[in-house]
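Chapter summary example: a protein plus protoporphyrin IX containing FE.
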Amino acid sequence: MPKLAMFVDVTKCVGCRACTVACKQWNKLPMDKTHFTGSYQNLPDLTPTTYRLVTFKEEPFGGSVSWHLLSHSCFHCNDAPCVKACPVPGAMTQSADKGYVAIDRKKCIGCKYCVTACPWGIPKYESKSETVAKCTFCAERVENNLTTACAKSCPTGAISFGDREALLAAAKKRVEASKKTFPKAQIYGPGAYGGKGTNVFYLLKEEPSFYGLPPEPTASAALGFWKDVLRPLTGWGIGATVIGALIHYLAKGPADYEEKGEGHGHS
Amino acid sequence: MATHEIQRFSNSERFWHITGAVTFIVLAVSGLGLYAREFAWLTVLTGGPYLSKWVHFLAGLVFALCQVMNFVQWRRDCSEWTEADGDWLRKSGGYLWSSHADVPEQGRFNTGQKLMFWSTSLESLGLFATGIVLWLPFAFPKGIASLSLVLHAFFGVTLIMLIIIHVYLATAANPGTFRAMWTGRVSAGWARYHHARWWKEESRP
Ligand code: HEM
Ligand code: SF4
Ligand code: SF4
């Protein structure tokens, strides 16, 4: 099975939010309470019950305004930091063949390690259930050869779903074509993590930082030291300490203060 | 029997040390279980991953209190440092090279115990500080939260290794020591052998 991916072309997005509605519907998520903040954007950030959100960034444009839209969710990273950080078997997992990152909330204990590990802070903690929630890549649909709900619902084709290699090639073509209108157009995602990349990637019209995205997403060095250095050494370290004590006992034996002949400990 | 026994630890010293020791074992088991997936099986001992999260948190608060009390009650005895301590270290306290007979006479705690005191106290402080960050990660900058994750694991693993050494020295390696912690009393022979300087001070009328 080839790796699956989603490609979000922001130049095609019209901000209709069909994707966010389809996401709510498929995942049976309730509506969040919104507050009017002077923007068309529904919520300031993802929530435990909103896995996908379209951000609206306004810029003056002639006498009117121009919108910079970004329909975003989990990036489904290769070698995902959240999976690396998760201590519970089966809670946050990566599909070995298809590449997406799924969460089983029945197993999640709400330790929030994944939230700290994710470069974008995508998993959201819900205190009521003491679990985190995020985009599931519509695993039940995808495993049954359906597209993700968001891609299915997008009327302009801004979200496409399919084979990762094919989508990467399509993205490369699109970025060249878009550069005429948007000189800063670039692909965001495949270069993340020093090239390991994400399985959801974007054609952006502007620099990533313009959308509030980290330009070079990486797993933190602390996570690497914890999981790649300390973790494999732990069993050996503790085992060596126990064996060291055992060897010491066999070689040196217990201290025998009574042999010194001074004072009787017992009577 | 009583004539040859002397008091080594007060009731309060015993209480805080024993409570600390029990909570530490709970913390070590649940902590390893929550640390990496290959140790997750350990969480069956503390009620599964979810309950272990709470057990670890609550036991951590109790342990922190015990360590504060241990610090308060032992810091003075563990702060004295003389040339004899350097000599003790050069002779590895008679534990690795040199023999016990060549090791200088020790006060209430020997050099190794004093080092154990300071390293366990500092590591406990580090564990408490980083543990609070792990419990409330959103109250801190992200860099602090990810640093705390790795430091908490590092302090935890190294403290477990230190305590394995500590327990070995306090039991199998030195018969007659464990009851100091449990009953508060030791034999006069033990005191003279291990802590001659302290024994002389204690037995002065
Ligand atoms: C888990 C089982 C433990 C056992 C069986 C144990 C045993 C003992 C014993 C017998 C003593 C008295 C030594 C003496 O009279 O000279 C002692 C002292 C001490 N214990 Fe423990 N202990 C345990 C856990 C801990 C833990 C978890 C800590 C702190 C993290 C700790 C810190 C100390 C310190 C600082 C002293 C005084 C100085 C020293 O002996 O190093 N112990 N322990
Ligand atoms: S974007 Fe965050 S939550 Fe999604 S796979 Fe990557 S690290 Fe995990
Ligand atoms: S919060 Fe849940 S999914 Fe995230 S690391 Fe902890 S157990 Fe895993």
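Key point: The mean pLDDT of chain A is 89.
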